[in-house]
Design a protein that fits this description.
Elements: E1 7-11, H1 15-26, E2 30-35, H2 44-52, E3 56-59, H3 64-67, E4 72-75, H4 84-91, E5 96-97, H5 99-106, E6 111-115, H6 120-131, E7 137-141, H7 147-150, E8 157-161, H8 164-168, E9 177-180, H9 188-191, H10 194-202, E10 213-217, H11 221-226, E11 233-237, E12 245-249, E13 252-257, E14 260-266, H12 275-290, H13 295-304, E15 313-318, E16 321-325, H14 332-339, E17 347-351, H15 361-370, E18 373-376, H16 381-390, E19 396-398, H17 402-411, E20 416-419, H18 432-446
Helix pairs in contact: 6-12, 6-13, 14-15, 17-18
């Protein structure tokens, strides 16, 4: 259904909401944007900008005037499906979609969708970096900018980092390639259950939204099992599984298609650290091969790539200590991935923050295997300390601030100081980005 001449209601004055409203207006829709919260003076310019384009804007509530007679609703990922406003809209039988779905419906550019609990951003950034060597591509979604901002550009592919929120509200999105990096429990409240979280991501691997190619993690038991149901041509990574796969063998990353194997790059030539990053590289290699990028360009692009900020990002090596910022690790599973990247190394781990109250058993196992000292900060300190001690790890230091945690870590003279919090940031910082910036700036000032 074309949106031209239709009343489109956009929920939320978020980056994606603004993009959707402007895109819908440009494509001939009658656009209303409704923000449930009050808008402070600092953000009032956004309202003025939208109104200047002829977009109707309200804030502080979702009025009947804006909701009534809407023919399509584009909702922000921050609004869960069980919220009152979504219930009101669904009761009126008005379709609700994501901004991602809106872009997909209104343009002809094929999508490479990259989803998963962890690793999405690095995989998306690396895939864009490689494909850009020979194709016109842009990263979008949770990384970079909303798809609607670039949907009218002349591109060969969108490379879209897609959250479970976006996929849950994208009923017709049919990607060219769907990549699923891994699956661990997250966002349970929004989806109201783990199975709903899984189903939201699984949609773009199954009919009627099945892609041409499905790319799945062979080391993730749930995804390995799911590969038996997934549709499209199946490619597995992180394991020599089947005729189509990408895997590590004898220190080399091998790509295999229709049973024919070829070396792409050695692990020593890869600039990204850790098994999880090797898996991210494998995902990007599969996407590059399926879009026709030559091997020499794939290899050179990987070798010159730098990790995105806050994702096991190497800050500096000074006086025998290497500092890594992994502030994006906002849950134990993500922190485990970083922790397991270090073997036979004296590592001081800075962890803690706002506790998500997830099980810490596996986290404690990884700490025991790879970490010499844990420096705890934030609201989660007490529970993390109790769990670590209960699992036989006693080399624990507590700190009141990030700066103090860094100072205490440096005093230990370890090989590595790793910030990988395993917690949300909101007890002490505005976001995980803010937390990572504080870490980076203080480390650079200290060394």
């Amino acid at each position: 259904m074309s949106i031209r001449g239709k009343k489109v209601l956009v929920l939320g004055l978020s980056k994606s909401g603004i993009a959707a409203a402007k895109f819908a207006k440009k494509h001939g829709a009658i656009v209303y944007l409704s923000e449930g919260k009050y808008v402070d003076e600092e953000n009032m310019y956004k309202v003025s900008d939208l109104k200047s384009l002829g977009i109707n804007v309200e804030y502080g509530s979702h009025s009947d005037e804006f909701v009534d007679n809407a023919e399509l609703v584009v909702s922000s990922p921050g609004i869960p499906p069980h919220s009152e406003i979504i219930k009101r809209i669904v009761a009126k039988n008005i379709p609700v979609i994501s901004e991602l779905e809106l872009a997909y419906r209104e343009c002809d550019i094929p999508f490479i969708i990259i989803t998963g609990t962890n690793g999405k951003t690095t995989t998306t950034a690396l895939t864009e970096h490689i494909l850009a060597k020979s194709l016109k591509v842009k990263a979008c979604g949770n990384i970079g900018q909303p798809p609607c901002n670039i949907a009218d550009e002349n591109l060969d592919y969108f490379i879209c980092e897609a959250s479970s929120y976006q996929l849950a509200m994208s009923p017709s999105l049919k990607p060219f390639i769907s990549v699923w990096t891994n699956f661990t429990p997250d966002h349970i409240d929004w989806h109201q259950g783990l199975e709903n979280y899984f189903k939201a991501k699984a949609k773009v691997f199954l009919s009627p939204q099945a892609p041409k190619y499905s790319v799945l993690n062979a080391k993730d038991e749930k995804l390995l099992e799911f590969s038996k149901k997934a549709e499209g041509e199946i490619f597995m990574f992180a394991g020599n599984v089947g005729e189509n796969c990408c895997y590590e063998e004898d220190g080399k990353i091998i790509y295999k298609q229709n049973g024919k194997a070829e070396e792409i790059i050695t692990l020593k030539e890869c600039p990204l650290l850790g098994e999880h990053n090797y898996q991210n590289i494998m995902c990007a290699i599969i996407c590059a091969k399926l879009t026709g990028v030559p091997n020499d360009l794939i290899k050179s692009a990987i070798m010159e790539f730098k990790a995105p900020a806050h994702r096991l990002e190497k800050i500096i090596e000074k006086d025998g200590i290497t500092f890594y910022n992994d502030s994006k690790a906002t849950n134990p599973e993500a922190a485990i991935v970083a922790i397991d990247s270090f073997n036979n190394t004296n590592v001081a781990l800075i962890a803690g923050g706002r506790d998500k109250n997830t099980d810490l058993t596996e986290f404690c196992k990884s700490v025991n295997a790879h970490i010499k000292t844990v420096v705890l900060i934030g609201e989660a300190t007490e529970r993390f300390e109790q769990n670590l001690r209960a699992n036989g790890f006693d080399n624990i230091i507590k700190a009141k601030t990030m700066e103090s945690a860094i100072d205490k870590s440096i005093e230990l003279k370890p090989d590595v100081v790793l910030l990988s919090p395993a917690c949300a940031s909101f007890d002490m910082f505005n976001s995980y980005e803010h937390r990572g910036e504080v870490f980076r700036e203080y480390v650079l000032s200290r060394v």
